[in-house]
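My main concern about presentation is that the manuscript never shows what a single data entry looks like. In essence, backbone conformation is discretised, so a fold becomes a row of integers matching the chain in length. An entry of this sort, consisting of the sequence and the corresponding backbone structure tokens, reads as follows:
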Amino acid sequence: MKKILIFGAGKSATCLIDYLCKTCAENDWMLFVCDANLLLAQSKIEGCKNAIAFSTDVNDDAKRVELIQQSDIVISMLPAFLHFLVAKDCVNLSKHLLTASYIDDRIKKLSDAIKKKEILFLCEMGLDPGIDHMSAMKIINDIKNKNGKINSFKSHCGGLMAPESDDNPWHYKITWNPANIVMAGSSGAIYKMNGNKIEIPYHKIFANNEVVDVPNLFPLAWYPNRDSLIYMNTYGLNDVNTFIRTTLRHPSFCRGWNKLINIGLTDVNDEEEIKNCKKFHEWFQQKIYRNKPMIDNSNYEKEFDEQINFLGLKSNEPIDFPIKNSALLLQNILEKKLAMQPHDKDMIVMLHEINFEIYNEKKLIKSCLIVKGSDEKHTAMAKTVGLPLGIAARLILQNKIKIKGLHIPIVKEIYEPILSELEKNQIKFNEEIILL
């Protein structure tokens, strides 16, 4: 009997666990779900006869090794910095590993050992990164196979609220790791635009964001993701004039978040500055006073006032937990004020804009994915992050994906069957080709 082990049963794991529960029942496999919170893990496998929930500290070497040893394939849904703990054990024990996170330098250093053990480490296998890689490579390879030349590549993706659940001035609610939301853009960004290398520092990431027209939706603002340039070679697009990967948000979110950053409310190094603040309005006013020269006082004052009032930043309420820094304080607020409610539905939007030349004609392909969630637990985010991992695990155990080594899903053997299976689960792109 084949066994699948999942570390982490949080927000993004719900649909993954649902899919694998069904898969295990169909194939007479076993699913192990391990989380520090046993009740959470148990709730995710309720009604699943082929699954067992465990609770353990992932830092417990002996227990972690024991769980990995008895499994055929491991899926890590842990915070990215913990993947390496699992990865080194998977190498030592010759077990396949899947993650939805970016490959970091520590895992890259395992590449030779992974290849030698003839196992598969498949990373960046979620939504973004993940579905973006697969869908983009399918288009890129289709164009190249027809002797077309790609001149510009733009890839946008965002987790938003469905219009019917968009009911606050931020036009946003939390559907994934709140710490990542607070620190979005903190490493700055690098991309290529019209032949020029563009570098954007953190304090300008959300300033004056451009908008993109999304088919069958409304215009959304975008901000650049980290270092887009590292994917130019990965995608085989070293000679394009424009190459950028972005995150989509409502335009007013970007305007408001830009102000929060420049006020200093995402600062991770200001414990001494704010340690004596007793109430939320004291913290907010102190940050404004200290960072006044950085604050953009141009338009949208009324809009921002509504946003900060919604978060309670001017309130007289006491801060009733230890203050470590502003970023953690803001995260605590967002988790309460921007929490999804049982009736809420989220929405994933992905859009590729690729300019190319073929048969002496210039064309633009717009490939768009819009996915809505069912409720606060079975979100579009959980579906689009989890299903690619679940499908990949099934195909690997069925020996339908045979590739070995350290990979992301940019090869046909991986992306073709997974995109096909995603379509069966209502994750399908609609393409429009425009003659320029």
Summary: The chain is about 35% helix and 20% strand. The CA atoms of residues 256 and 304 lie 6 Å apart. The chain has a mean pLDDT of 93. The first strand starts at residue 3 and ends at 7.
